[in-house]
Amino acid sequence: MRGRDLVSITDLSSSELDRVLDVAIELKGSRQPLLTGQTLALLFEKPSLRTRVSFHVAMRQLGGDCLYLSPPEVGLGERETASDVARVLSRYVDCIAARTFEMATVEELARHAEVPVINALSDEEHPCQALADLLTVNERKGGLRGVELAFIGDGNNVANSLCLGAAMSGMHFRIASPPGYELHQSVAIKAEEIAAASGGSVLLARDVEEAIAGADVVYTDVWASMGQEPEAAVRRENFAGCTVDTKLMSQAKTDAIFMHDLPAHRGEEATDEVFEGPQSVVFDQAENRLHAQKALLALILADDRS
Question: Do 73 and 214 share a domain, yes or no?
Answer without folding.
Answer: no
